[in-house]
Design brief:
single chain; alpha+beta; Rieske Iron-sulfur Protein; 3 domains; 5-stranded antiparallel β-sheet; 4-stranded antiparallel β-sheet; 13 strands
Length: 355
């Protein structure tokens, strides 16, 4: 093979390796050079430039409107009088507002860069940089040059609408997260106490039918709420606190062989003949623990795979949950129905609640 500058020389195992790495003759590879610069319509026409600036501004304004709309959609469907259809519609509108708000910022930024910012091609060699004064001064020059080329300081309308879009975009998330729990001095009371009380019968969710101990067979699982929890008030109106109280009081009822359980001192009487009740709310981020594996006696949270050992007071054996599921002490009343001995002895739900 000839030693032409248009081809790569063949390697010689004795001479063309340094430190185990192949050495390529730089002169043997032709430099393709820079591609010809293609002018954009916005470079040639002031009309197109102004139109592009209006489009970018419109996208940022649309982002602000979409973010504000998602907040409106959240408050347009109050939870006190809402059906499942309205829940779906509310979720769709909130998600659409947030999504379009973020999408418009992204499209606007890309459109700005592709149509209005300077697009001269630059080729520069890679080299190690040092934090010297000369390098820092040069970095400031580059930043100032980028500012001039992008028009960030000069294009005030685009800059201000971008600021507005970025400022409004987080607001829907802030509003939604701020409204997840009660505010005020009664936070402790609302988060640490549920609808369970001494003598409250355990009832099947969602119909509220009391459960007899004889109805619970080994291996069976019941989703349980307090019998006293009512979706409607005595006058037929909806109970506005029903969903909130149900979310905190939800329980999983499981029956195993009594010999399987290993209660700690003081908890020997919290179960009844192998029947145990634990909070259904995962101690990680509050997802519903709904999967029971009878063979291993494990409860699984489907959201992040936190796994709890039912035989050992629902201790965490896998996953991100930081503490066991709270146990509801239960007993049997004179008619054979399962009842709570008391409320939970510790906070239910995510661990941050008790902080």
């Amino acid at each position: 093979m000839s030693n032409s500058k248009d081809v790569v020389k063949p390697f010689d195992s004795e001479h063309d390796y340094e430190g185990g790495l192949a050495v390529i003759d730089k002169d043997a590879i032709k430099n393709p050079g820079m591609e010809p610069h293609r002018e954009r319509m916005t470079d040639k026409s002031e009309k197109h430039e102004k139109a592009a600036a209006r489009q970018v501004t419109a996208l940022f304004v649309f982002s602000m409107i979409a973010s504000a709309f998602s907040i409106y959609a959240y408050f347009a469907f109050p939870l006190s009088n809402i059906t499942m259809g309205q829940v779906r519609l509310s979720t769709l509108l909130i998600g659409a507002g947030i999504s379009f708000g973020m999408l418009a910022i992204g499209i606007g930024a890309v459109h700005w860069a592709k149509t209005l910012m300077v697009d001269n091609e630059v080729s520069e060699a890679r080299h190690q940089t040092r934090g010297s004064e000369e390098v820092r001064a040069r970095a400031v020059e580059i930043i100032n040059l980028a500012n001039q080329e992008s028009g960030f300081s000069r294009r005030k309308l685009i800059r201000r609408t971008l600021y507005g879009a970025i400022a409004l975009f987080p607001l829907p998330g802030i509003v939604l997260f701020a409204d997840l729990g009660p505010l005020g001095s009664n936070v402790e009371e609302k988060l640490r106490h549920t609808a369970w009380a001494k003598g409250t019968r355990l009832a099947k969710d969602p119909y509220g039918t009391p459960i007899k101990a004889s109805d619970v067979t080994i291996g069976s699982v019941f989703h349980v709420i307090p019998e006293t929890l009512r979706e409607r008030n005595d006058d037929g109106t909806l109970n506005s606190e029903y969903l909130n109280e149900k979310a905190k009081a939800a329980v999983l009822l499981v029956r195993v062989e009594p010999s399987v359980l290993n209660p700690s001192p003081g908890r020997e009487k919290w179960a009844y003949d192998g029947i145990v009740a634990y909070s259904k709310i995962c101690t990680h981020v509050g997802c519903p623990v709904a999967l029971y594996e009878q063979h291993t006696h494990h409860l699984l949270c489907p959201c992040h795979q936190s796994t709890f050992d039912l035989a050992n007071e629902c201790a965490v054996i896998f996953g991100p949950a930081s503490r066991p599921l709270p146990q509801l002490p239960i007993a049997v009343d004179s008619e054979g129905y399962l009842v709570a001995q008391s409320d939970f002895n510790e906070p239910v739900g995510p661990s941050f609640w008790e902080r």
